[in-house]
């Protein structure tokens, strides 16, 4: 009996370490498609199990080795499942770079401590053995689940259910009697607004791969149809937009995103010009705008080391050296110069006017940075996020705050329903993607909610300026576009 007991409690560091090595090598090679580039990462990933083998073999008590080894395996399994089976983003694989250090420095010491406590309970009484045999596997499974699918962790599921009960079903909460929702399109298309002809005011474009319908944004009547040439499906994408060039022709601006190019093409796909100051890196953004109000489009580019204004032919007008990324832009008004806003994550926000003159530099943090800039009822402002929309002026002075309840602010847009009144503020808030609830809240100049709607899918807000200075509000949810206006 004594020999049997000793064989059960023999230090298990060797089989646990071997199992861990098999896990990391198998998943690293298979997950990379058996690329040779995965070999250094696989070797780095064996670090926790090398430590387990070396340290565990020197321990008299087997329980710390059991705790450290099973904890490392559970954590590694969860992290690798989150990368290879259920990735939550394009950068999920970065976790594999840091996971060996995390497992070695944090998981294994905690696991060894818990393992030692389990050993004490095991030796204490039969009840202790029952607790260890029951709670131990459950804890390891929860560790794996929490790293692989955190949205399915029991406490998270309970919190999500409570949040859904509090928010309720998709519906119009406030404003059904004072606002009407008019269907505009149910096509699986892209929707955008902008000045696409020579007349004052913005048009609404409904874009498909073959071309676009250009609508009067007030009456919603079709003004023209644009046909795209070239190979079908290759000209237009998620980072494309229509722009009216100084000669009156429509062109397509590829505004950048990911590794996509930033360039201007005609409607047949022929390249007019490309802005790429560093041939090895694409600019972060290339955005068309008429910030100075002269009726001619200009372009603002954000690259790895500068914010640049370009003319309609792609020539640099001015260039400001910075590592900040372009956030948003607002045109010149009678009260304010144009704002070209760029943020350096977690450090500062910079603003220039349309002539490249710096207007301000404000310190920010990763937790408190502007999401948008708006011409609000309190003046031109930065809008910061969180569970409220907090507005600040050019000098960092607080202007107002609008709470969003259970929602986190995603974006803010000003909309002037009438030319002779103060603008309203349209705020879009969201919960986590598993809860899948979104909110469109419109407040007036007194910060009173005049419209409040709950959605199951993200509502994208578009604003079209009219010739008289008023604006038309559109809401795009999946493939449905509708106009939201006051009765």
Q: What portion of the residues fall into strands of 2 or more residues?
A: 25-35%
Give the overall silhouette.
elongated
Distance between the termini: 87 Å
Oligomer classification? single chain
Describe the structure.
With 487 residues, the chain is an alpha+beta fold. 28% of the residues lie in helices and 35% in strands. Among the domains are: 151 residues, no CATH class; 144 residues, no CATH class. The strands form 7 sheets. A 5-stranded antiparallel β-sheet has the order 1-26-25-24-23, with no helix packed on it. A hairpin with a 5-residue loop joins strand 5 and strand 6. The longest helix has 30 residues. The protein is elongated, with a radius of gyration of 29 Å. The N terminus is likely disordered.
Could you give the topology of this structure?
Blueprint: H1 2-8, H2 13-31, H3 38-45, H4 47-56, H5 62-84, H6 95-124, H7 126-148, H8 154-167, E1 171-174, E2 179-185, E3 190-194, E4 203-208, E5 211-216, E6 222-227, E7 240-244, E8 250-255, E9 262-265, E10 271-274, E11 285-289, E12 298-302, E13 306-310, E14 316-321, E15 325-330, E16 339-344, E17 348-352, E18 358-363, E19 370-376, E20 379-384, E21 388-392, E22 398-403, E23 408-415, E24 424-430, E25 438-443, E26 449-455, E27 459-465, E28 471-477, E29 480-486
Antiparallel strand pairs: 1-26, 2-29, 3-4, 4-5, 5-6, 7-8, 8-9, 9-10, 11-12, 12-13, 13-14, 15-16, 16-17, 17-18, 19-20, 20-21, 21-22, 23-24, 24-25, 25-26, 27-28, 28-29
Helix pairs in contact: 2-3, 2-4, 2-5, 4-5, 4-6, 5-6, 5-7, 6-7
């Amino acid at each position: 009996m004594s020999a049997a007991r000793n064989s059960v409690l023999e230090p298990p560091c060797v089989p646990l370490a071997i199992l861990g090595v098999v896990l990391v090598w198998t998943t690293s090679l298979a997950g990379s498609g058996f690329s040779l580039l995965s070999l250094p990462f696989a070797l780095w990933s064996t670090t926790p199990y090398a430590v387990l083998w070396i340290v565990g073999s020197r321990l008299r008590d087997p329980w710390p080795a059991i705790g450290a080894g099973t904890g490392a395996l559970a954590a590694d399994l969860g992290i690798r499942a989150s990368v290879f089976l259920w990735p939550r983003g394009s950068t999920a694989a970065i976790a594999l770079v840091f996971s060996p250090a995390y497992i070695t420095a944090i998981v294994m010491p905690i696991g060894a401590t818990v393992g030692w406590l389990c050993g004490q309970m095991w030796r204490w009484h039969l009840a202790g053995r029952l607790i260890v045999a029951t709670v131990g596997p459950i804890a390891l499974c929860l560790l794996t689940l929490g790293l692989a699918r955190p949205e399915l962790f029991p406490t998270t599921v309970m919190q999500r259910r409570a949040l859904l009960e509090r928010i309720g079903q998709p519906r119009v909460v406030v404003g059904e009697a004072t606002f009407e929702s008019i269907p505009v399109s149910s096509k699986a298309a892209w929707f955008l607004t902008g000045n696409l002809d020579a007349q004052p005011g913005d048009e609404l474009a409904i874009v498909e791969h073959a071309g676009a319908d250009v609508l009067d944004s007030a009456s919603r009547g079709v003004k023209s149809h644009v046909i795209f040439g070239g190979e079908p499906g290759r000209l237009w994408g998620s980072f494309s937009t229509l722009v009216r060039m100084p000669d009156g022709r429509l062109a397509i601006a590829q505004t950048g995103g990911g590794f996509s190019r930033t360039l201007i093409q005609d409607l047949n796909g022929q390249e007019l010009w490309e802005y790429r100051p560093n041939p090895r890196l694409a600019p972060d953004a290339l955005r068309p705008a008429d910030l100075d109000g002269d009726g001619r489009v200009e372009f603002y580019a954000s690259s790895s080391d500068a914010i640049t204004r370009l003319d309609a032919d792609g020539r640099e007008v001015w260039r400001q050296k910075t590592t900040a990324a372009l956030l948003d832009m607002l045109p010149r008004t009678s009260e304010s110069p144009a704002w070209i806003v760029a943020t350096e994550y977690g450090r500062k926000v910079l603003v220039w006017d349309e002539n490249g003159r710096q207007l301000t530099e404000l310190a920010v943090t990763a937790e408190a940075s502007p999401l948008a800039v708006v011409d609000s009822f309190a003046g031109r402002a930065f809008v910061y996020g969180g569970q409220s929309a907090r507005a600040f002026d050019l000098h960092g002075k607080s202007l107002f705050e609008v709470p969003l309840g259970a929602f986190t602010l995603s974006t803010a847009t000003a909309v002037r329903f009438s030319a002779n009144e103060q603008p309203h503020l349209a705020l879009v808030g969201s919960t986590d993607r598993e809860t899948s609830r979104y909110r469109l809240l419109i407040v007036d100049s007194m910060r009173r909610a005049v419209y409040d709607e709950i959605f199951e899918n993200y509502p994208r807000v578009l604003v079209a300026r009219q010739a008289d200075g008023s604006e038309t509000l559109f809401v795009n949810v999946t493939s449905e576009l509708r106009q939201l206006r006051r009765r």
